[in-house]
Structure formats: C-alpha cells, structure tokens
Design goal:
five-stranded antiparallel beta sheet; disordered N terminus; alpha+beta; 2 helices; Immunoglobulin-like
C-alpha cells in the first residue's frame, strides 16, 4: 500500500509538472508583498500586494493596498530601483524603452482611491513587458499623478517587486 501512495504521488507530480512548465513558457508572473519600506511613519500599517502578468508581449499590473487613510486618492508607479531607507533609493519612474506617445503610456501608473475602510485596488495593462533588471518596485505617493509631468508628491511607501526575474 505504501508503494502505491508513493507511485501515485510521483505520477501526480509528473502530471502537474508538465502543465506548470507549459504555462511558465507563456506567462511570467511577478509578485511583491509589503510594504517593504514605509517612508512616512503614518503609513507603517499599510499592506500591499503587487502582481504583474506578462504574456504575448503584454503585461497586466495590479496593486492592492489596505490600511491607507479612507476616501483618499494616491499616485502609484513602477520605479526603476528596489526600495531602501532613503526614499530616492527606488529611483525614478520606469519608462519603457521604445514606447512612444504620452508619458502615461510609457510608464506604469497605478493611482489608487481608497474606500471607506482604506482599501484600494488599481489595474492597468501595457502592450509591452518589463525586462529583468530594469524595474524593481512600486511606490505609493502622497498625491495623484499629474498627467503632464508624472509627478505625484512625496514617496509614502515602497514595495519591492522583482519584475521580469
């Protein structure tokens, strides 16, 4: 009986490994959970999740946050560096090389508006993927994104995300 269980488990592992390998070749999924660093102590209790799904040259991004002040809007962007104690450690906004058009289409903007409980979800899709090593975090800012400049005020918190890795 013990041999049958081992055989069944090994067989199931083989069956599960084949579809996983097939999916891995088509879809890349990046995850970040945090916040890694809160630059403003008022935001120490904020929890974030970042997901990015890349397939067929396109990427869908999702930012989820809890513990933010209720009924308020914030800017949020993918940044080039990883989070650090210095708010500037995360670098500037990621801008996709070769993307043309307005700033909003060359960057990843994930502005949030919280509900009455301080929860928010934001999603966007871009017709490109992020290469490994070119972006490393998502930063939530104090103000919404200015569409002309991309500025969004002070960096409140940062979540590391290994984009493209």
């Amino acid at each position: 009986m013990r041999t049958n269980w081992i055989g069944a488990l090994l067989g199931a592992g083989v069956l599960l490994a084949v579809p996983a390998a097939a999916v891995a070749g088509r879809t890349m999924v990046d995850h970040g959970h945090g916040a890694t660093v809160a630059h403003d102590p008022a935001y120490d209790g904020v929890r974030t999740q970042v997901h990015a799904w890349s397939k067929d040259g396109e990427t869908r991004f999702r930012l989820m946050a809890t513990g933010l002040p209720p009924n308020r809007s914030f800017g949020a962007h993918v940044h080039t560096g990883r989070c650090g104690l210095d708010p500037l450690a995360s670098g500037g906004h990621y801008q996709h090389a070769g993307a043309a058009g307005p700033l909003s289409t060359r960057e990843v903007w994930l502005d949030l508006t919280t509900d009455g409980d301080g929860r928010a979800v934001s999603e966007t899709t871009r017709p490109w993927t992020i290469a490994a090593g070119t972006a490393g975090s998502v930063v939530i800012h104090a103000a919404t994104t200015n569409p002309a400049t991309g500025a969004a005020g002070a960096r409140l918190l940062c979540t590391d995300v290994p984009f493209g890795e």
